[in-house]
Amino acid sequence: MLKFFIKRILEVIPTLLIVTVFIFLFVHMIPGDAARLVAGEDATLEDIKLVEKELGLDRPLHEQYISYMGGLLKGDLGTSLKTRRPVSEEIGARFMPTFWLTVWSMVWAVMIGLIIGVVSATKRNKWPDYVGMFAAVSGLSLPSFWLGLVLIQIFAVQLGWFPSGGMESWKSYILPSITLGTGVAAVVARFTRSSLMDVLKNDYIRTGRAKGVNEQNIVWHHALRNALVPVVTMTGLQFGFLLGGSVVIETVFSWPGLGKLLIDSVAFRDYPVIQAEMLIFALEFIIINLVVDLLYGILNPQIRYD
Amino acid sequence: MEMTQTKKEQYEALLLEEETVRSPLSEFWRKFKKQKLAFVSFIIILFIFVLAFIGPYITPYDITEPDYENVLSGPSAKHWAGTDAYGRDIFSRIIAGTQISLFVGLTSVFLGAVGGTVLGLAAGYYGGWVDRIIMRICDVLLAFPGILLAIGIIAILGPGLGNVIIAVAIFSIPVFARIVRSSTLEVKSTLYVEATRSIGARPSRIIWKHIFPGTLSSIIVYFTMRIGSAILTAASLSFIGLGAQPPSPEWGAMLSGGRDYLSMAPHVTLFPGLAIFITVLVFNLLGDGLRDALDPKIKE
Amino acid sequence: MKKAYVRFGLLLVLIFSLVACSGGEEGEKEVKKVDKTNKDVTIAVSATLTGMDPHDTNDTLSNSVQKTMIEGLVGFDEEMNVIPVLAESYESNEEATEFTFKLREGIEFHDGTPFNAEAVKVNFERVANPENGLKRQSLYGLIDTIEIISDYEVKFTLSEPFGAMLNTFAHPAGGIQSPKALEEFGKDVARHPVGTGPFKFVDWRPSEYLEVEKNGNYWKEGYPKVDKVTFKPVTENGSRVAMLQTGEADFIYPVPTEQVEALQGKDGIVVDSEPSIVVQYASLNTMKEPFNNPKVREALNLAVNKEAFIKVVLNGEADVLDSIIAPNVQYYEKQTPYGFDVEKAKELLKEAGYESGFKTTVWGGNSSTAVKAMEFLQQQLAQINVELEVLPMESGTLSDRIWSVENPADAEVGIYYGGWSPSTGDADWGIRPLIGGEAAFPPNSYNVSYYSNDKVNAGIAAALETANSDDRAAAYKIVQQEAWNDAPWIFLATTRTLAGKRDYIEGAYLLPDNSLSITEIEIKE
C-alpha cells in the first residue's frame, strides 16, 4: 500500500507541472491591463506606468513565468498586485471561512442525504422512496443562487432570524450552508440509494435474511458499510469542489471565502492570486483523490492495492 | 489487407447478429413507460420544446416594450407574474426566454458530448499514449469546478451567450470523455469487436459501427442529465453578469436584474427562478428514467 | 404513491406562495428596534478596503476609512468647499505656483511623534517621489520644493502653475502620516496607519473588518464621541441593507437606490439622500460616424427622457445633469437642459441624413445599474430608430478595449456609458480628463468621446494658470457652455449620495464625492 501511494504521489508531479504552465498561460490570456486596474479608475498614464514598473508587469512573459516558478519552488506564491500583501496571506485569510462553510454544509448534507438514501432504498417503490427521490432531484435542480436569495428573503429579511450575509457568529453559517449543502445532500441521497440497493441484492444479504437476521440490522450494519464505498468517493469529490469556494453562493451571501476572492481577483487581473487559487484547486483535487483511495481501503478491505 | 470470402461472411454474420441483439427499442419503451415520473417529465419537456418554438409568437405582451408607468407591479390578473423594472410583462418574457435556455442547454451539451465522445472513443480504442494524454488533459480540466473554468473561458473570450455555450461545452468534454472511454473499453473487450478486429476491419469503421453504438446508451443518459446542469450553469453565469446581453429574456439574466429588488419586488426573481427550476427538474427526472430504463452503469 | 406527489407538489406551492406573499407585505414589515447601550458603531461598506496608506490608495472607500485616522493640511466640508484641518491657514500667490500653510500647534500623531513642518515635508516628499511607486504620485508630482519656514510653517513651490492645487491638497491622498511610522514600516504603513485623526487603528482583517478606536488625545476638543468604529465590507446590496434592518450595522453606505423608499422612515431607519459630484453620461465618439455630426449628437440628447432615466434606472435618487460637471463641483455653471422631444430628434436625424436611423453599440461596465442604464438607453433610442446593441464588459475588458487604445483612429468605441467622480472637487479634474482635447485621449486619460474644441482646451489651460477664483470661474464658464452645446455626451444625471443609518446616529455623513465623514459621529440617547 505504501508503494502504491509513493507511486501515486510521483505521478502527481508531471500533472502539476502541466497544471502550472496551463494556469500561467490561461491567466495571462485573459485580456486586460492589470497595471491600469491596480492604478485605479481615474489614474493618469504616469501613475499607470509607475505601477506597471513597480509590479514588474513590464517584463516579458517568459521572464515573469520563470520568476513565478522560481518563487513557487521556494514555496513563495508571490505578492498580490492589488493589495501588495503576500498571496499566501490573502489566501490564508480566505481559506478558513470557505473551509468551515464547506464542513458545515457537508455535515448536514451528508446526514440528511444518508437518511433519505437509506429510507428510499429500504422502502423501494413506496411513497417514502418517491418523496425522497423527488426531493433529491429537486435539490439538484434548484439554482443555488436563487435558493440563496429566497432563503435571505424569508429568513433574513422577513423573519429576521439569521443574518443575510457576512460571517459573524454561528448564525451566519445557517443560510449559506443550507444553500450550499442542498445539492450535496441530493447527490448523497441518490448515491446512497442506488449503492445500497445494489448491495441489498447481494447473496450474503439474502443469506442473512434467510437466516432471520433482523432487517434493520442487515441494512445498518452489513449492507450500509459496503454501500458506503462509492458514497465516500463521491462525498470526497464534492468536498473538494466545495473547498474551491462557491463563487455564486459566496457572492450572494458576501462570504469572505476563496470563491469571492477568485471573482475579485479575476476582475482585478490580480495574476498571482488567480494563479495561486487555481493551483490550490488542483492540489486539493489531487489530495482528495488520494484520501478517497485510502478510505476505500479502510471501508472495504477487499479492495486493496498491490 | 484483403478480406477473404469466408472472413467477409463471418463479418456480415456478426453484423446481423448485432442487429438482432441490439434492437431493444421496444424493450426500452416498455421499461421507460413504467417510469411514470420520467414519462410525465418527458411530456412536460415536449411542451417546453413546443413553447420554445412558438413562445415568441404567443406572448401576451411585447417583451421589449417598456412601460415606465407600471414598473415592478406585483402579480395580477393583467400581468400574471407581474412586471419588471421597466414595466415589461415577466410572464411574457419567461415564455419568450424558454428557447434561449433550451438552446443554450442543448447546444452546449451537444458540443461537449461530440467532443467528449470523440476523445473518449479515441482514448478507449487506441489506449497507450493517446489514452494517457487525453485522460491527463481531462484530469486537469476536471480539477477545476465547472463554473470557475467557465468564468476563466469567458474572461478570455468575452461575455455573451455564444461564449457561455462554448464555456459550458468545454467543461462537459472531460466528463463525456471519461464515460465514453470506459464504455469503449467494455465494448472493445466483447467478443464481436475482437472478432471484427481480427478480420481486419478499419479502426474508424470498428469504432463507428461497433463501439460507438455500444456506448450510445450511456451517452444518451448522460446527455439528458447534463442538460439540466448546463442550463443551471448558464443561468449562474448570466446571474454574475457574464451571460446574455440585454434585452434578452434569458432567465438567469432576468433573475440577476431582479436581485436588486429582492425585498420590494420578490416576484421579479421568483418566477424566472421557478422557470429554471422546473426546466432543470424535468430534464433531470427524464435522465433518471432513461438511466433506469437503459440501465447503463452511470450512478450520477 | 400518487398522493405522495400531490402532497409534495402542494408543499412546494405552499412554500413559493409564502415567499411571494411575504414580499408583498414588505411595506408594513417591521424593522427591529435596536437599543443602543454602548458607544460602538458598526458601519457596513460596499467593498473590501484596499489599503490604509493614503499616498497609495485610489478608491474613495479606503480613503474614507483612512480619514478617520489620518488627516491632511486641508480638507472638504459637506459641500466640498476647502476648509483648514491640520493647517490653521493658507495662502498662495496669484500665479498658483507657491502655497504656504501655517500649521496648528501642539498636535501629536497616535504614536506620540509631534506634528510639525518636518512631518509635512517628509510626507509630501514621499508621495511626490516617482521612485517610491505610489499610486497618488501624479497628484503631487508638480511639487518642486518644500521649504520649512519655521516649525509650524511650510511652503510648497510648484514647477508650473496649477490653479487647482489647493483642492489637490484637500484630497485624501494628501493625508499626513507619522514620519516615524513611515520610516519604521516602509510600504507596510498600508497596514499600520498612524495619523493625527480622531480614531486610532486597532485591527484589520481585509475580508472581514477594520476596527478603529477613540483617540483620547484628539486635538478637536470634545471629539470623538464614540469609543469604537468597525467597518465591515458587505458587497451584496441586499445583505448590507438587511444588516441595517436587523441592527447589525448602525450605518451603511451606499444604500442601493432600489431600497431607499422601502427603508426611509421605517422604525428608526433614516436614509440621507444628498446631491453628489458624480456625473452619469453616455459619451459619443465624436471622431466616428455618425457621432461626428453635431445634429446626431443633439438628436440623441433629445431622444432620451432624463426624468424617466432617473426614475427607472436610479429610482429617483438623482438629478438631471445640466452641465458637464455637477452643481457641487467648484465653478459649476448651469446650462439649459436639452429636454425630451422625440419629434425634434427625428427631424434632426433626418437633416443629418439618418432618416431611417442607424445601428450602433453602447459599451459599459457590467454592474447591474450600468446594465440597466444601457438597456434603458436602448429602449429610448429605439424611438428614433437607432438600434443600440448593449455590451456590458467587466473592468478588465474595458481597460483593454477602451482605455488602453493607443491610436484614436483604432478606437472601436461608439457610445460608452459611464460615470465620473472628480475626487478633488475642482472643475479641473471634472473636465480636463474627460473632454480636455487630444492630451486627454486614451491611453493618457479618459476623453473617450475623442472631443477636442480649441476654446475648451484654451479655457482649461487658462484656468490652471491662476489661483484667482474669478479668473478661473470665467474660464470654466466658457468651457462649460462650449461643451454643453457641442454635446460630446448624452447628458444624463448626477447621482445622489445615499447613506442609511439608525436614527440614534448623528454627525456621520457622506460628502458629495461619496466619501464618509465620521469625525463628529455620536450616538444620541
UniProtKB/TrEMBL annotation, chain A:
Gene3D superfamilies: MetI-like
Domain ABC transmembrane type-1: 95-292
Entry keyword set: Cell inner membrane, Cell membrane, Ion transport, Membrane, Nickel, Nickel transport, Transmembrane, Transmembrane helix, Transport
Transmembrane segments: 12-30, 99-119, 131-161, 173-192, 278-299
Membrane topology: Multi-pass membrane protein
Places the protein is found: Cell inner membrane; Cell membrane
InterPro entries xref list: BPD_transp_1_N, MetI-like, MetI-like_sf, Opp2B
SUPFAM superfamilies (alphabetical): MetI-like
Record carries keyword Transcription regulation: no
General function of this protein: Part of the ABC transporter complex GsiABCD involved in glutathione import. Probably responsible for the translocation of the substrate across the membrane.
Protein name, per record: Glutathione transport system permease protein GsiC
Species, as recorded: Savagea serpentis
Primary gene name: gsiC
TrEMBL record, chain C:
Organism superkingdom: Bacteria
The entry's keywords: Periplasm, Signal, Transport
Extent of the signal sequence: 1-22
GO MF annotation terms: peptide transmembrane transporter activity
PANTHER family xref list: GLUTATHIONE-BINDING PROTEIN GSIB, PERIPLASMIC BINDING COMPONENT OF ABC TRANSPORTER
Function noted in UniProt: Part of the ABC transporter complex GsiABCD involved in glutathione import. Binds glutathione.
Name under which the protein is recorded: Glutathione-binding protein GsiB
